[in-house]
Write the structure tokens for this entry.
Amino acid sequence: MLELLIQDVNGEIKAQHRGNDCAYLGYKGTYNVGDKIIIKNDSADKDYLMVKLDASLDTTFIYMPGAEWHYTIPEVHDRTAYYPFSFKGERHYIEVRYAKEYEIYQYRNLALNPHDQKEDTGVYPHASANVETRNETVFFARNAIDGVLANDYHGRYPFQSWGINRQEDAYLKLEFGRPVNIDTIELVLRGDYPHDSYWTEASLEFSDGTEEKVLLDKLLTPQLMSIQKENIEWLILKDLIKHEDESPFPALTQLKVFGTEGF
């Protein structure tokens, strides 16, 4: 059984719906500061969900190991990395359903999650970092897994990225929340040249204790690395070596990790 609720900052329920395999809400009303969308799942053996919490967000495959997920509606000043009409207006449609078997077992980008948020909400994949430029939404780590590839500018949507605020020991951690098998990693560097610089080298650390060094170029196009790992639960992008140019601003637009579930 799945249940969807919209709850205000005081814990009052504004709307709700339950269903055996799918729950949905057509909500007529505006979102206020502190409002949350809550998903409840009482089926302990069904952890894979397909969710769509706003018309502007693509339906997303997520792994939810817990019984509840609280998604805080981004406040207006935190929506600069989202489509300008995200969560606005007086009519909204949200939906959650259990993933189909073919969706669970298919080969896909295991990092993709436009529903990710800065804080760890217990839903995966989840991206975090030890630095995000000026703590601004447009430079959060979550932007690197939102599926948006526009990388020839920087700043507000659709040019959001992971920014490192010139920090030499910057790293980004991607958590899958369960074992997965991977064979390809794709990095899309931000390339607002000459404002931007770029990394010539980086390291990828994996939960199995191994590391891989990768070389990068000054490209707007995706840079693919063939890296095969089994049953890893997280990876860290670190040891970022900036090119010796005048710009101090390298950044990451997108991180993709292709593979399958680690059953």
Remarks:
- Residues 2-105 form one domain.
- The mean pLDDT is 97.
- The first helix runs from residue 101 to 105.
